Amino acid sequence: MATHDHEHEGHQHVGTEEDETALAEDERALEREARRIVALARIRQYGDPALRMKAREVETFDDDLVRLVERMTSLMHEAQGVGLAATQVGVLRRLFVFVHEDEDRVLVNPVVTFRSEETDVDDEGCLSLHDVLVPVERATSVTIEGADAAGRPVRLELGLPAARIVQHELDHLDGVLILDRTDDESRRGALGRLRPQPVLGAR
Ligand SMILES: [Zn+2]
């Protein structure tokens, strides 16, 4: 009996801690969601002309560029994305940030120097196309070259999923969206969901 009481006490104690943990987790999840909505409002959304423009080469590697990369990187994380191109924040310069093997990366003036013939079709979303997920065919491996924020050369040989991410972000720098890369039926479905809403971000 004594053992049972002891166990019971133990359970109660653990239960309380679990409740507190669950509550704290709920609060963190709500806070994250609030930050995501604020971040998305700062990212150009479908219909914004900047998303259809071709970005120009970066010529000057200065403090402004470093600050832009920092701003884009935190915006990407707050929006819970894995990649963000400069055109998505209205800056028509050829650079994007992305996450590769849990590390934040940046590619300035990126160029794909190898693209595998082998391709893969998978669903892609986009921080500028809220709630849209459409199948897109991409090369399964690419070599991409460019520079980091300080102008040092970068060369990356990437497989999936990073290869898919950089092809998506590189498209942004040429004004190309996943809607242009998917099949007709998926495009029609996506466009239906993208009709202008009375309040941005409202559900
Ligand atoms: Zn995108």
Question: Which key phrases capture this entry?
Answer:
7 strands; 5-stranded antiparallel beta sheet; 203 residues; disordered N terminus; alpha+beta; binds zinc ion; two-stranded antiparallel ribbon; 26% strand; Peptide Deformylase
Task: Kindly describe this structure.
- With 203 residues, the protein is α+β, with helices and mostly antiparallel strands.
- It has a single domain, classed as Peptide Deformylase (Alpha-Beta Complex), CATH 3.90.45.
- The protein has five helices and seven strands.
- It has helices at residues 2-41, 63-78, 162-173, 178-181, 184-193; strands at 83-85, 95-100, 103-115, 119-126, 129-139, 142-147, 153-158.
- The model is unreliable at 1-10 (pLDDT under 50).
- The structure holds zinc ion (ZN).
Write the layout of secondary structure elements.
Blueprint: H1 2-41, H2 63-78, E1 83-85, E2 95-100, E3 103-115, E4 119-126, E5 129-139, E6 142-147, E7 153-158, H3 162-173, H4 178-181, H5 184-193
Helix pairs in contact: 1-2
State the fourth-level CATH superfamily: Peptide deformylase
Helical/strand content category: alpha+beta
Oligomer: single chain
Approximate helicity band? 40-55%
Low-confidence stretches: 1-10
**Averaged pLDDT, please?**
90
Please report the total strand number as a whole number.
7
Q: Spell the H/E element sequence.
A: HHEEEEEEEHHH
Can you tell me the number of structural domains? 1
What compounds are bound to the protein?
zinc ion
Shape: globular
Task: Name the CATH class.
Answer: Alpha Beta
Indicate the proportion of strand residues: 25-35%
Tally of separate helices:
5
